[in-house]
Design goal:
Elements lengths: L1 H7 L2 E5 L4 H8 L12 H6 L8 E5 L26 H7 L19 H9 L30 H7 L14 H10 L19 E7 L8 E5 L5 H5 L5 H6 L15 E6 L3 H7 L11 E7 L1 H8 L2 H23 L3 E5 L4 H8 L6 E9 L32 E6 L6 E12 L2 E7 L4 E4 L7 E3 L1
Antiparallel strand pairs: 1-2, 3-4, 3-6, 4-5, 6-8, 7-8, 9-10, 9-13, 10-11, 11-12
Helix pairs in contact: 11-12
Amino acid sequence: ALRFACQLLGWEMHVLDVGDEAIGKLLGLQQAQIATDISPEVLEHEKEKPDVLIAIQPASPDPVSGCGSEHCSAHDENFRPIEALDEVVSQISWHGTINQLSQDHGHMDWSHARLMADWCWNAGGTRLRVPEIQASPRLSLEPMAREADAATVIRERRSVQNMDGKTAISKEVFYKMLTRVMPEPGRSPWDAVKHWTPAIDLALFVHRVRDVEPGLYVLVRSGTPDTFRKHLVGGVCKHDGGEWTKPGGCPGNLPLYRLTRGDTRKVSEALSCNQEIASGGAFAVAMLSHLSDCLEQEGTFGWRRVYWESGMLGQILYLESQAAGLRGTGIGCFFDQETLDWIGMDSSYCDIYHFTLGGSLWDRRIQTLDPYTYKLLHSVDEVLRFSVGDRVLCYVGEPGTGSWAPGTITGLWERDCPYKIQLDAGTMAFAPVDDERLVREA
């Protein structure tokens, strides 16, 4: 998301290959260990861990990027190269003491979270270096189903709540989406993590793609197709022989292969904790990682880094589905080992995350308001138009297509909403603003 935002502005972003110790020194996190007025028990609970260091900087003036103004130059005399931070860190002097963040730590046990944070520590390097600055074209998602620019697509991105179970996509849209998740050099957002070795392959449960047979497919991102095939040792692929054929119309440079054909809707639903959302879309995804390679190359930090990569893949699929007039969502509940067993992956692979996209069904109980509506909220000290017991009409539904429902004011300023309304239909409603468009006199 940050890389896309930078590209919209014509700026460059890079995730720096820096270890946690160096980041901690830069942020002064070691100062927490020398605090004298906070007990050791509280310090242990409130210990902060470094996560990632990102460099954001102007790109070189370039007509393609649209970045060439006086405020957008990497050669500005006030611009300090990231390399200079090496020297800055060694000269930092910290003053004062840290403050205690919470007065109560007795009701939660975070020991397992701290254990995982320690286990995934990034030894990394100590030098703060950024790759050579290269201007990139401004971001364009090339919407396929409607006219909208990238900023609009990003702002409208929402997780689908329910699939319609019928919307299909064309094979052209399908292949384009998969092309976007391939880690090609110079393509956003992968240009921000040039030092990463791709670690995730995609198992695709294809349900409703026109001119592409339903079945199980794999998109090989992390290595060669031959290498991936060596890790298929059983499951549905072995039983059916594992077709390993490219679907019709697939671009030659897209490493997409069909493993088995047939209806996989019930299977994908069952493997995603029996959630219908995994079977009601155009296709569903299981993100598979050859984790043993990551751990060998990057140490235990590889586990953390693989999840970062899965998040980037999910974000791309979110935006691509939105640009195509669809909706997508991550699926956090799934049976990982059962997924691997059904596909036939060996024990070196892990199932990292699931995703699905397709035609959405809108929950009419959810109301959509204009952005920054919270700025219209009245102060608690201001006089509201209605009091508890007043009869009102409450607008329910989407703007322009909803309806007015009668009810009674039963509370004021609950959940940061001026009105709590008991509707005559039996449901409860909360009006986020005291506005005639939402609540009016009955």
